[in-house]
Amino acid sequence: MPLAAVLLCTVIGISDGDTLTARCETPEGLRNIKVRLAEIDAPEKQQPWGQRSRQSLAALCFRQPAEVRGSTTDRHGRLVAHVA
User: Are strands 6-16 and 65-73 parallel, antiparallel or unpaired?
Assistant: First the structure.
């Protein structure tokens, strides 16, 4: 999958305040992709305000359509992307 491509997705999971899982249409078919939001740094679940951060992201985008524009991958193999 080319990183610069725009993927049409649905947000299906929220890991923490800056990481989500999206089900995306790819040339190979539907695929679940772990996405780290670009230019966002939120607390992890176990850190202070981590649960609130996760809840806020979920309120914004869970089960919503999204355009995912990847730029790179991080050390954990997640796609680092802008999501609109």
Answer: antiparallel
